[in-house]
User: Which sequence fits this backbone?
């Protein structure tokens, strides 16, 4: 049956996965002061969840996360940041997990897919207008604003919370985690907007400029940005070399 | 044979582990401006490595890391921070891993312990004078200064590098990652010494005080510290409530 493709593939063993471990992806989409998160729903189950996937035996863990996201978005160059391992024995929620397995036609409680999972959490920050959600045979995908996220499968609500608190902390030292959201040159107000949306509060203009320049990741250019009706303002840019170095380190 | 206890226990199945996944612990010991790292060596193998362990089927991942460290140090309250998953297919180093297995008397290449491992990295920052290294039947343990770390088993040198770069980044936003190293009240110079040792450079006294107080995790007390021969200086303290909240979040 079509609707059971994913799980049947695993059960029948025609894909060769690392057992008991998965990747869960929290993709935050930003555009015009709005922050959203990408959620997935299997057609045979009623709850939304994060886009998830397994790791193939001959595949790096980071590559598995990229594959999981490429399948859903078509994007090759999403910057996925590994942020936490969710490894409590009570997850996934046993009742819900059994329910999904039953609906997918899998009743063998001994099969590894019915048992404990340790999940590696990844987050990404993208411009949601640039993402083309893929139509998948057995899965719906949709952007949700943060204030309209429903009760999700298992512990996925708390995984999103954890990703958000991680991003908020990282913004303070690594402004380049949002560099995919901006053009090469930008007025600093655009970067401040991203901060204000993610942090959920207004920031003082002068303090923001002082702090962001002190990180060394953002540099002020010798160019002026003019927009009709607005005061001319300086343009800024990420220090790509320093950013790439720091990102490859994380 | 005594020397093969650990691996034989796994192979014989008398301990029930999650397969293909391990925890690797990087314990940094600080004292009097010296930073060291705790390393382990199985008596039947010639290379040093990080203290490692498996995760039991009925055990949370964080609890496994605590058990691994308690076994080696006797300490219950080491604050272990999960910092990265090492999940490339080329690890552990196949040649070295086979060598360890062969020396331990395990030649079955099909057994999961001979195959790919995904490792969850944890770090801790402790006062090394307060750690009593345990004598284990099949394993030696020793503190190494950072500049005397030898070539370690598999990718463990780069795991230490990654832990160190993580700590250096985190110090900027979370000074409380080193609060186990200080008494309840301390002159700020003691905290600055820890920073200088970990960052490997001198810091400006006034800038340091301004920055550290701006995080809100450290507060200045209305008390003066007097030591014979030294200028009286203010005492400081961690804002425990705020620190605990932030640590439970990470």
Assistant:
């Amino acid at each position: 049956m079509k609707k059971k493709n994913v799980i049947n593939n695993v059960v029948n063993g025609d894909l060769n996965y690392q057992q008991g471990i998965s990747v869960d992806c929290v993709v935050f989409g930003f555009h015009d002061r709005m922050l959203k998160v990408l959620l997935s729903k299997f057609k045979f189950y009623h709850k939304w969840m994060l886009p998830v996937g397994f790791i193939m035996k001959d595949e790096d863990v980071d590559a598995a996360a990229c594959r999981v996201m490429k399948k859903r978005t078509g994007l090759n160059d999403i910057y996925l940041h590994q942020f936490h391992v969710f490894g409590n024995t009570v997850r996934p929620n046993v009742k819900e997990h059994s329910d999904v397995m039953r609906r997918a036609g899998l009743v063998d409680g001994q099969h590894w897919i019915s048992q404990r999972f340790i999940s590696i959490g990844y987050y990404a920050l993208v411009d949601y207008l640039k993402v083309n959600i893929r139509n998948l045979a057995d899965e719906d995908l949709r952007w949700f604003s943060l204030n309209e996220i429903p009760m999700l499968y298992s512990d996925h609500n708390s995984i999103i919370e954890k990703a958000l608190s991680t991003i908020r902390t990282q913004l303070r030292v690594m402004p380049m985690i949002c560099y995919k959201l901006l053009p090469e040159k930008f007025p600093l107000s655009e970067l401040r907007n991203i901060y204000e949306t993610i942090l959920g509060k207004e920031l003082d203009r002068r303090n923001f400029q002082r702090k962001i320049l002190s990180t060394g990741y953002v540099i002020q250019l010798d160019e002026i940005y003019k927009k009709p009706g607005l005061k001319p303002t300086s343009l800024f840019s990420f220090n790509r070399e320093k950013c790439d170095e720091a990102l490859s380190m994380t």
About this structure: The CA atoms of residues 99 and 239 of chain A lie 49 Å apart. The first strand of chain A starts at residue 17 and ends at 31.
